[in-house]
Amino acid sequence: MSWPRPGSPHPEVANRTRAVGPPRWVFVPAAAGAVFVVLPLAAIIARVRWSGFLALVTSDSSLAALALSLRTSATSTLLCVGLGVPMAMVLARTSFPGQQVLRSLVLLPLVLPPVVGGIALLYTFGRRGLLGHTLEVLGIQVAFTTAAVIMAQTFVALPFLVVSLEGALRTSGERYEAVAATLGAGPTTVFRRVTLPLVLPGLAAGAVLSFARSLGEFGATITFAGSLQGVTRTLPLEIYLQREVDPDAAVALSLVLVLVAVLVIGLVRAGRAA
């Protein structure tokens, strides 16, 4: 009779461990869900007119929309980082009355229809809005400008960074920060030298997700910023307009957004793996 080597699992235990897994029926709805997601993407690829693909995606209006989307999305991502990091720190490292209410309000854009967010921004910063009237008197116009695009994108993308970073902060704990504080480091030094390096993967993932959400923003943008070529017409708005006049161009530009989304997902997964 052969005995298992010290430290190795008993053969019966190993066999039972290998046998643990999802029930077989789970694979049927899982496959159906995968087909439901993948099939429309495959339909886009099948619908693309490859012979004129480059001409469609490099037209003046398409390039202007793509350039505007990349520029405004990068700016809104920087705003999300600048505003979201302090917000996540406050939510994860402090406790105060009304904290849960504040967290719910911060995450509200995740569940609100984007067009509702656009209306909220319009009635806040529009010409007759809560703050827009005062800004208009000072000669500052926000609505229907490139700044409005950036604000709309930031409004819908900010919660993605806050959620990612708050989760990373709660997972990392406060042990290393407490040790650094006992050694004489000030709060700012602890934040810069200890906290940020610990949560850098979560911050990077949140920033990438915020950029992707900004790049695909449509509802809040068209409501608050309108659709003026070169000023407020981002790539999603260009796709919507091209759908009526040139469906081939709309499909080609849609594929470009799909490829960007795939790249973003790959970056997020790579960041989490690291």
Fold and architecture overview:
This protein is 74% helix and 0% strand. It has 274 residues and is mainly alpha-helical. The protein has one domain (60-273): Orthogonal Bundle (MetI-like fold). The longest helix is centred in the first third of the chain and has 34 residues, at 60-93. It is globular.
User: What's the domain count?
Assistant: 1
Question: What is the averaged pLDDT score?
Answer: 87
Q: State the CATH topology.
A: MetI-like fold
**Structural class by sheet pairing and helices:** mainly alpha
The SSE string, one letter per element, is HHHHHHHHHHHHH
Ranges with pLDDT <50 over ≥5 residues?
none
The percentage helix is over 70%
N-to-C span: 45 Å
Give a summary of the structure in a few sentences:
With about 270 residues, the chain is mainly alpha-helical. Helices cover about 75% and strands about 0% of the residues.
Summary tags:
single chain, MetI-like fold, 13 helices, 274 residues, mainly alpha
Protein topology:
Blueprint: H1 11-19, H2 27-47, H3 53-57, H4 60-93, H5 99-106, H6 114-125, H7 132-137, H8 146-172, H9 175-182, H10 187-215, H11 219-224, H12 235-245, H13 247-273
